[in-house]
């Protein structure tokens, strides 16, 4: 029995060449599609303009540090299932800061899908509380406080809500 010998011709080389690049292009198309579909978009709005005003932000932080205020954020659940976000403000001497106007937002670190505005009310001397519907997991609280003179204090903290 005689075996037929195989001869590699130009047609075979062309088919191998086209097949190789077809596999590479198909894999690239799959990866590009998955990357575009899973990209949530820009989290920081107007990031270029924020970069231009970076020195202004540094000056604001220095003014905030000069106030000497301290803030402590805690979170827990209440009976209704909502999250209770507590902010306690004190002076550098440890005295409670009352009469502040607070606003804030509760966000997921990886998505802006579940953002919730926080409306804080003073529930004790220097203690402010807001409620938000929040599932268990990692969250980021961004809040700002202002007194009657216009002194402003901004804070951000990452929390885990059980």
| Rg measurement, Å | 28 Å
State the CATH class of the domain at 69-161.
Answer: Mainly Beta
Q: Choose one word for the global shape.
A: elongated
Q: Helical segment tally?
A: 3
Can you write the helix and strand succession as a string? HHHEEEEEEEE
Distance between the termini: 77 Å
Sheet-strand content, in percent, reads 35-45%
CATH architecture annotation name of the domain at 69-161: Sandwich
- Percent helix, as a range, is 25-40%
Overall SS class: alpha+beta
Largest sheet: 4 strands, antiparallel
Brief description of this entry?
It is built from 3 helices and 8 strands, in the order αααββββββββ. The chain is of the alpha+beta class and 162 residues long.
Provide a descriptive summary of the structure in words.
- The protein is built from three helices and eight strands; from the N terminus they run H-H-H-E-E-E-E-E-E-E-E.
- The longest helix has 29 residues, at 10-38.
- The protein has a domain at 69-161: Immunoglobulin-like.
- It has 162 residues and is of the alpha+beta class.
- The radius of gyration is 28 Å and the shape is elongated.
- 30% of the residues lie in helices and 38% in strands.
- The protein has helices at 10-38, 47-52, 54-67, and strands at residues 70-77, 83-90, 101-108, 111-118, 121-124, 127-132, 137-146, 152-161.
- It starts with 9 loop residues before the first helix and ends with a strand.
- A four-stranded antiparallel β-sheet has the order 1-2-6-5, with no helix packed on it.
């Amino acid at each position: 029995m005689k075996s037929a010998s195989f001869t590699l011709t130009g047609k075979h080389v062309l088919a191998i060449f086209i097949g190789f690049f077809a596999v590479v292009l198909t894999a690239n198309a799959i990866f590009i599609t998955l990357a575009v579909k899973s990209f949530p978009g820009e989290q920081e709005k107007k990031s270029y303009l924020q970069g231009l005003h970076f020195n202004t932000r540094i000056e604001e932080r220095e003014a905030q540090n000069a106030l000497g205020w301290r803030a402590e954020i805690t979170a827990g659940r209440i009976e209704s299932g909502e999250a209770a976000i507590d902010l306690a403000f004190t002076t550098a001497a440890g005295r409670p800061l009352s009469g502040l106007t607070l606003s804030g937002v509760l966000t997921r670190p990886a998505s802006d899908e579940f953002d919730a505005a926080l409306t804080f009310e003073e529930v004790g001397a220097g203690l402010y509380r807001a409620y938000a519907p929040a599932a268990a997991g990692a969250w980021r609280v961004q809040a700002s406080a202002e007194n009657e003179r216009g002194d402003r204090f901004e804070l951000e903290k990452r929390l885990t809500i059980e």
